[in-house]
Design brief:
It is a single chain. By secondary structure, the chain is an alpha+beta fold. It has two domains: about 200 residues, Hypothetical protein, domain 2 (Endonuclease III, domain 1, Orthogonal Bundle), CATH 1.10.340.30; about 130 residues, Nucleoside Triphosphate Pyrophosphohydrolase. It is built from 15 helices and seven strands. Strands 1, 2, 3, 4, 5, 6 and 7 form a seven-stranded mixed beta sheet that branches. Helix 10 crosses helix 12. The chain is elongated. The chain starts with a helix and ends with a helix. It binds a DNA duplex through helix 3, helix 4, helix 7, helix 9 and helix 10.
Length: about 350
DNA sequence: AAATCGTGGTA
DNA sequence: TTACCAAGATT
């Protein structure tokens, strides 16, 4: 099976920038970007990131805000914060060289069981099995495992088996071959068994269960929230608020607002109340901008955005988490998807008003 | 152990 | 529209 899979990989492996030059830094960056994220999504981010921060040293010396801007749109922003933190640890504790073993790598922030094994095997040739979602699915079918994905039982079986049967000669390629097989052939739905190089070794296929394995546990339905935010114009600038250091969209910038409460008699009421609560500023909404819908991992929101103006002059000095920003400077602040979409609208409205 | 953390593509 | 999911880590 090793030979079948590696032969298939040699002929069908995708040409990817982190494969043509598997230096530790590039492999590390690619593996972190690829966490829960598709190859096609990562490609442009990977190139742009390396253009701005080509080495581990430049990453360590960069400001966190610059790293977050380069990450903007990729999601799971703690990856960017941990990557940046880990680069600084490597500079100070490992003489600027990424450690070469999975055992050491896993100690760094943002590098867990899978990523440490992937970096160690691909960049350093260490024979450690890298088990990701693809590999779990491939082995669940190869071994016809009946336990659902996500159970500790399935996890242990796959890890033990993958490590026991990992070939010593090309561990990095073998790990990647399993992942490529999972993403190109052994698909979650409608696996392409007719073209699978290891079909004859697959228990699920032999038993005709390939479309029913692996089993998955159904997730709870996601709740929905109504949110309102204000774009407050004052002397040619708009007010942005920085989110908390931890949690959702940590340290990213957004327009102040919050959840609409049942007590609010209308949207205007809600915006006014939430902005006062978040900023201490009293406003009046002037014009509706739009309704921005967005789905996060485990809930969805509708964001009602309003233009607004201040009822009184603002304080001369604002707290650190509040900032007046010119439309032209909005692109320099890291934001999540919703805030960015609102910013694009603000910018186009601003340019249109200027041309009249 | 289970919840949390983004976004875009697809059926 | 909605559900599901994609090279997971952290708490």
């Amino acid at each position: 099976m090793h030979n079948r899979l590696l032969d298939w990989y040699d002929k069908n492996a995708r040409v990817l920038p982190w494969r043509s030059d598997p230096s530790p830094y590039k492999v590390w960056l690619s593996e972190v970007m690829l966490q829960q994220t598709r190859v096609e999504t990562v490609l442009p981010y990977f190139d742009r990131f390396l253009t701005h921060l080509p080495t581990l040293k430049t990453l360590a010396e960069a400001r966190l805000e610059e790293v977050l801007v380069l990450w903007e749109g990729l999601g799971y922003y703690s990856r960017a914060r941990n990557l940046h933190k880990a680069a600084r640890i490597v500079q100070s504790d490992y003489a600027g060289k990424l450690p070469a073993s999975a055992k050491e790598l896993v100690k760094l922030p943002g590098i867990g069981k899978y990523t440490s094994a992937a970096i160690a095997s691909i960049a350093f040739g260490e024979p450690v099995a890298a088990v990701d979602g693809n590999v779990r699915r491939v082995f669940a079918r190869l071994l016809a495992l009946e336990e659902p994905i996500g159970t500790s039982s399935l996890e242990k079986t796959v890890l033990d088996y993958a490590q026991l049967h990992l070939p010593a000669k090309r561990p990095g390629d073998f790990n990647q071959a399993l992942m490529d097989l999972g993403s190109m052939v052994c698909l979650p739905a409608q696996p392409k068994c007719p073209i699978c190089p290891v079909q004859s070794f697959c228990s699920a296929f032999v038993q005709g269960k390939q479309n029913n394995l692996p089993k998955v546990i159904k997730k709870a339905p996601t709740p929905h929230y109504d949110v309102c935010v204000a774009v407050i114009w004052h002397e040619g600038k708009v007010l942005l608020a920085q989110r908390a250091d931890k949690g959702l969209l940590a340290k990213l910038w957004e327009y102040p607002g919050g959840k609409i409460s049942p007590a609010d008699k209308d949207q205007e009421d809600g915006v006014q109340r939430e902005v006062l609560r978040k900023t201490g500023l009293e406003i009046t909404p002037t014009r509706k901008i739009g309704d921005f819908k967005h789905a996060y991992t485990h809930f969805r929101i509708s964001v009602q955005a309003w233009y607004a103006r201040l009822l009184f002059s603002p304080p001369v000095t604002l707290p650190d988490n509040l900032r007046w920003v010119s439309p032209g400077d909005l692109s320099a602040l890291p934001m999540g998807k919703v805030a960015r979409r609102i910013s694009e609208r603000v910018n186009s409205d601003f340019l249109q008003a200027e041309n009249q």
